[in-house]
Amino acid sequence: MKYSSLTDRISGESVDAWDVHYDGLARLDAGEDIIVLSVGQETHETTPAEIVESAITSLRAGRHHYTPVEGLHELRMAITKRHQELTGQVVDEKNCAVFAGAQNALFAAAQIALETGDEVILIEPYYTTYPATVTASGATIVAVPVKAENKFQIDPNDIIAAITPNTRAIVLNSPNNPTGAVYTMEQFRPLVDICVQKEIWLINDEVYQEILVADDRASPAGLPGADKVCVTISSLSKSHRMTGWRIGWIVAPAEFVGHLRNLSMCMAYGLPEFTMDAAITALQLGTDTADMVRTNMDRRRKILEKTLQDVPGLDFYSSVGGMYVVLDVRKLPVSSYDFSRQLLDNYDVTVLACDGFGETGRGLIRISLCAEDENMEIACDRIRKYVSSLTKSDV
């Protein structure tokens, strides 16, 4: 049977990168002593009880029917209120549409903004699902690499130099996944200006934004001109420990949101009422959960810095943002994929090879900070032993 060309655009290395992760989960479910450091989800934490109870109360009240396809009005009001607090951009519910997580939101934004013949600029290394997400629209990727020696920071001039007459969007992610790099208003300002000048969409994925301290937060949405070009994507997954609830959103110009509504009409036809009620409760609770998540990430980042920073054969990169650190394993006699496969098979730890994160991801390993402290320390010891075995065999 014949399949569409879309099936090619949504497959390949970016998908294959997850093979080791899912193998590790299967072995964990089978009772093996696997430490999972391959996903941005706190292993032993659960959604706050108040949020769970809100969903249960909602279900018992019969709130499980069709809903507005763009999301409940009260939820969109709560989202835009929090967005304004975080970014300074003045918006209301007409600027917001709710989706089944930030991943779904980015896919929807790409469908609205991009089509065949368009180019979209991605910062490389990029999150592994970005290529399929944006090219499903028919657009092609123009990668702008960032360098480890520059702490994976963007240079706005490099991005501007990559713009062509076919450029329709620039996709940013700050704090960045996988590198943790956090961008500044000074870096955003020329990008907003050029996007306004050339009518290019500036799409910023901010799912890790709320687990930063306030002084480190920056969003292009708060700059002059952003109202015309900025599409901000976020969710409750990281900030409120709600990965499985699938609550994400887009804040964008009202006309953009109107097109998103039409797309949602024929795609999901609205989200469950009870999950959106729980999301409203989450946003009303404030920042306590995000603060706890940040504290955990900071503490575990220090554990990895202490134990892996000086391991022969490894280069260690860390930042203040996100849920990950990055290892450069190019001095070792294995590829990053083989590193992740052998670490699982021989030492029972899952990490994510960045082979599917673009060409500059090759040789890099992403390590999640989301396991408990004791398991982080055990995993670091296993990584050290594995690297030692490689360097001994290479002598």
Give the SSE layout:
Blueprint lengths: L5 H4 L3 H4 L2 H11 L5 E2 L12 H12 L12 H15 L8 E4 L2 H12 L5 E6 L5 H6 L4 E6 L10 H6 L5 E7 L11 H14 L2 E5 L20 H4 E6 L12 E4 L2 H14 L5 H12 L3 H21 L6 E3 L6 E5 L7 H12 L1 E2 L1 E2 L10 E5 L4 H21 L2
Parallel strand pairs: 1-11, 3-4, 3-5, 5-6, 6-7
Antiparallel strand pairs: 2-8, 7-8, 9-10, 10-13, 12-13
Describe this structure in words.
The protein is α/β, with parallel strands linked by helices and about 400 residues long. The chain has 15 helices and 13 strands. The chain folds into two domains: about 150 residues, Aspartate Aminotransferase, domain 1; about 240 residues, Type I PLP-dependent aspartate aminotransferase-like (Major domain) (Aspartate Aminotransferase, domain 2, 3-Layer(aba) Sandwich). Helix 5 packs parallel to helix 12.
